[in-house]
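[step 3/7] fold_predict: job queued, chain A
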Amino acid sequence: MPSSKGYKRDYDAEYKKQGKSKKAKKQRARNNAARQKALKEGKVKKGDGKDIAHKKAGARGATFVQSASKNRSIPRTKKAKRKTTKKK
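[step 4/7] structure written:
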């Protein structure tokens, strides 16, 4: 849905607010810990363009190495599954 005419987003305020919640801080700490663990195990290297991905969305602990472009992309070619309701 487009914004109203003349509306300008305050990107500076959004950036300052981003990641300040307790939930976001905990998630960031978990992600950083997973990355450090993979570095120690030799699975990734600094600047190699790899991400630590989760096997299930939001899963804790279940991670693997994946290219950054694949991990951050949105599937655009697959059709979204639609929920169908049965008519009575």
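[step 5/7] annotate
Strands lie at 50-54, 63-67.
Residues 12-71 form one domain.
exit 0
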